Amino acid sequence: MRPVRDIAVVAFGQTDHRRTSDEFSEVEMLMPVLHDVLDRTGMKTSDIGFTCSGSSDYLAGRAFSFTMALDGVGAWPPISESHVEMDGAWALYEAWTKLLTGDADTALVYAYGKSSPGSVRDVLTRQLDPYYVAPLWPDSVALAALQAQALIDAGETDEPALAGVASRSRTAATSNSHAQLRGSVAQGDYLVRPLRTGDCPPIGDGAAAVILAAGERARDLCERPAWIRGIDHRIEAHGLGVRDLTDSPSTRLAAERAGAFERPVDTAELHAPFTSQEVVLRKALRLGADVDVNPSGGALAANPVMAAGLIRIGEAAARIHRGLSDRALGHATSGPCLQQNLVAVLEGDAR
Amino acid sequence: MSKEPVAVVGIGQTKHVAARRDVSQAGLVREAAQRALNDAELTWADIDAVVIGKAPDFFEGVMMPELYLADALGAVGKPMLRVHTAGSVGGSTALVATNLVAGRVHGTVLTLAYEKQSESNAMWGLSLPIPFQQPLLAGAGGFFAPHVRAYMRRSGAPDTVGSLVAYKDRRNALKNPYAHLHEHDITLEKVQASPMLWDPIRYSETCPSSDGAVAMVLTDRAGAARSPRPPAWMHGGAMRSEPTLFAGKDFVSPQAGKDCAADVYRQAGIADPRRDIDAVEMYVPFSWYEPMWLENLGFADEGEGWKLTESGVTELDGDLPVNMSGGVLSTNPIGASGMIRFAEAALQVRGQAGEHQVDGARRVLGHAYGGGSQFFSMWLVGAEPPAS
């Protein structure tokens, strides 16, 4: 689908992601990031046409947690604003649709998550079917391990290859000052077979923000806007028993609808918290060896839940802003074993 | 640039009750969605995307339940978005779905909101203590009662107005087969004799806790042309937010509510809401919010809203009926309540509201709010397609 209006990511900012942030509230964590993206564009809150955020009450441990973050935005005079209880990548999608209607020309999108106050492995079990599955508390690592084992059994990868994904990602992260895990990280012991600690993402806290702008406004705000050529997301069945865990048809369909296969991309920022998930996504997205995958280090280097997907789009856009990429793909996922996937295709103006 | 006109061609609700022990959450949402599809005479295959909303995940104890509900809502292989904007979420969800059609991303979208409050305790779900922040004081009533008092003091309204609203809405609910509370023996005296909960709010002036779901099928001009029943057309929609607490906040008549209404009226070409709008489905969880919102939405001057209520203007047979369905006071599955307002507004302009139909309703406002009177979402629907 060709969007009816040209919309671009014109600014991206993120926190330094870290294991704990006890000394900061969510608002305090978020504020510098919001100021960062506003400063980059020279805009004030009152200049923004639409604001949308992504977060989860279950991480915060309280209902309506996003209301406090809104206070941090400075919603006075009142603003046009919305919130998704999803990763911020979907907040960006909502903002993109709002800009498509022509009701706004600019949008501020942000997302944040603090995993440190609780056990994120346990918290994520509360996403599962509440009657039949959640009571068993199968945690996110165990579910990812099922997927990894299915891949190994299908001959699509093996443990050394997975270790290679981990090593490549964290080596790439050495050039990302925001990343939580960088450089040489031991693969470590099995956490849940066949996944070792090195195959799993760090647990951490962080926030990110993006500014979108339409048409000429984007060129005013950014020297080289990252135009959203297409963006789409798809969901799969929840029950793992009815899915082929070695494949991601929702990613493939979203990529197709976003136009990802029309021309090759040079960069792909994939939201793959587990090494084995990169294997699935590479296949679904038909990424060849020539594509620079997760130059930021990806979710294996920093995985602030609810913001990690938005960061992938932001990182892809930032590479276009910096002239390091001409056509990049940003991907976000949600749910157990890549249940829901979003794909954005971003391009810089021809040089 | 021009937007695609958006039409409501299917509406479905569950019968709202205190506890739907016969269905799971998936069963509950499926029921409303299937009814909306039946109304539109469409199948699951006709739906391009699903937009779902509900209030806090803590109410049912499921984190991001849309993941689990994807199968039940026929969303597998489709885009599915989950909106959460506190009490206004039902309205916001419908507006997000509207934008998918208006922005020509999709042709036909299913939007749905629900709450299955019987699976937990909403009052305590709203009352998780947090350091350095004002708790909601054991449920929403404790938060809102002081603002009702402020309204009474500011406007000089007699203390009987709240009970008139409750009496009206509960009688209206008797004409709505989907309403939760059907109090066949309701009298004004009973409302006035009910226990005081959060002075000045009495028991019968508060909303119930409901299980329920509501769904709508939204479509573009081509989809509307195929609709078997009259569509409702979206003429204007907006959301506005302001901070929870700050020194300049007017809790009686928040600026965000005024701005939101003004935006909707501008889009819809409404010059004088009192004259140009035929009826209102308004988010009134505590009875006194009817006169308060009448002022906030521009139907009455400041301090005058209670006079409309007292003189019977807002009765079902009045000049500006408010909450023909019985409103939130009679049915409150929190996350769905805002969308029920939007859906009931659409039912009215489609002429499909049954016993609680307002004769000749051509333009009707649906209104929702949430948080500490800080999130607002509204839409105005009409029987005719928008002019441009």
Automatic annotation (TrEMBL), chain A:
Molecular function via GO: acyltransferase activity, transferring groups other than amino-acyl groups
PANTHER family: ACETYL-COA C-ACETYLTRANSFERASE (PTHR42870), NON-SPECIFIC LIPID-TRANSFER PROTEIN-LIKE 2 (PTHR42870:SF1)
Name of the protein this chain belongs to: Thiolase domain-containing protein
From TrEMBL, chain B:
Regions annotated as coiled coil: none
All copies of domain Thiolase C-terminal, residue ranges: 243-372
Superkingdom of this protein's organism: Bacteria
Pfam families: Thiolase_C_1
GO MF assignments: acyltransferase activity, transferring groups other than amino-acyl groups
PANTHER family attached to this UniProt entry: ACETYL-COA C-ACETYLTRANSFERASE (PTHR42870), NON-SPECIFIC LIPID-TRANSFER PROTEIN-LIKE 2 (PTHR42870:SF1)
NCBIfam families the UniProt entry points to: PRK08313.1
Protein name: Thiolase domain-containing protein
